[in-house]
User: Fold this.
Amino acid sequence: MSEVSAGREVGAVEIAFLLEKIREGDREAFMTIIRLYQQKVFVMAYSILRDREDALDAVQETFLRLYQKAALYKPGKSFQGWLLEIAKNISIDSYRKHQRKRREWETTKPLEEIPVAAAPSRDGDSAASDLRGAFARCVDTLAERQKMVFVMRHYNELQFNEISETMKISIGTAKSLHFKAVQNLRKRLAPVLGIEP
Assistant:
């Protein structure tokens, strides 16, 4: 099997082929899917769990679930949306199990490392790093559904139809939540950027 690079778009035919190979027990096909989607699954898990170790556990559980349930994927559906829905459900279950940690999570900077993971800064670029930190903190203050839509749209690069499928909401609701998230971010970032809101 040819090496597939993470971050590039994968067609439905290739996904179907990889899933068929996974069902046959092909380890390399499974590793290929992991390489392609682990960053996006991590971003989804981290946006909910707000803890790196818990998010990594959720990533591992997501791919284990994929391995066990590859036959349940319905061709024609967005594979990425389907996989992120698994990640979202696992992360929410994990979050509920660990609710006693909630106060501790809310005082941390939950999305701090997502922009760094998505767009690594050059060494010594502290102004960009500070701005990314401020942006991450602003994203984290969004209402839960606004934040999830924003993260899926901008970090996971999902289309609105995939977001609506993953979150089980209408496309109109996904667009509305995204619009509100962007408006709220503009207001919250204005003082940081030194501009009038």
The chain has a mean pLDDT of 79. The CA atoms of residues 18 and 26 lie 9 Å apart.
